[in-house]
Amino acid sequence: xxxxxxxxxxEAPAPNKNRDSASPEPLPERLVRDMDRDALSQLVREVNAxxxxxxxxxxxxxxxxxxxxxxxxxxxxxxxxSVASAPNPQQLAGLAAGLGKPLSLVQRAAAIQYLAYEAxxxxxxxxxxxxxxxxxxxxxxREKRRWxxxxxxxxxxxxxxx
Length: 162
Description:
Blueprint: H1 29-35, H2 39-48, H3 56-65, H4 72-79, H5 89-99, H6 103-115, H7 127-137, H8 141-160
């Protein structure tokens, strides 16, 4: 039997194979993104739909037209979760305009991503909205995704055919 103990009686260190990582293979980019807090970045990616939805350039144009300019590179960086600090109020307004989403939704996503905010109540909404949310909260994730897709499709149809 080959003993790895040195003169001191202690075991010799194991060979240094891939010590820089717990895994010899890099993690897939999407998995890394999903592991991080990235609610706002995810919102930007969803609107862009990996290049199949609204382009980052179009998002920047919308933001500028709304009077709250946000550059195309900023949208790109936000999509990859590469923006290190929280957007300021004007950037939030530009992001909302560029994404075509309500400012309150963008603010909440930014708070989750940059401040580890967790909503515990529904304030500022009428009874109808609270009832709808209460129904949705009891659904399984597949049903919630289906309802979200229907709502977003309705919003898109209203934007496309005012």
